[in-house]
């Protein structure tokens, strides 16, 4: 049993973690809302929604970093 104990715990941890992700993944709800609400949505726009979501996330992170940096320099040198 000792040999499989670590693998067993990893497996249990993985199941719990994935189960948790199932309820906390915001992307899932964004896609589901856009895809289920309009039945005429094609797969093309479905994938475009995913790409746009990730691009917006990246853009938001970058602008947030820029804002923090400019704030830091303003406080430091002004």
Overview of this protein structure:
The protein has 78 residues and is an all-alpha fold. The chain has one domain. It is built from three helices and no strands. α2 packs across α3. The longest helix is centred in the last third of the chain and has 35 residues. The chain is flat, with a radius of gyration of 21 Å. It starts with a helix and ends with a helix. 0% of the residues are buried. The mean pLDDT is 72.
Features:
78 residues; mainly alpha; flat
Mean of pLDDT = 72
- Total number of helical segments? 3
Name the helicity range. Answer: over 70%
Major sheet, described briefly? none
Helix-strand makeup class = mainly alpha
Radius of gyration: 21 Å
Distance between the termini: 65 Å
Number of domains: 1
List the helices and strands and how they pair.
Blueprint (H helix, E strand, L loop, with lengths): L1 H23 L1 H12 L5 H35 L1
Helix pairs in contact: 2-3
């Amino acid at each position: 049993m000792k040999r499989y104990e670590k693998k067993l715990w990893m497996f249990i941890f993985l199941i719990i973690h994935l189960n948790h992700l199932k309820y906390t993944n915001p992307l899932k709800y964004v896609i589901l809302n856009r895809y289920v609400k309009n039945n005429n949505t094609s797969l093309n726009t479905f994938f475009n929604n995913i790409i746009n979501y990730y691009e917006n996330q990246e853009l938001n992170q970058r602008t947030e970093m820029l804002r923090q940096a400019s704030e830091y320099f303003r406080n430091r040198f002004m």
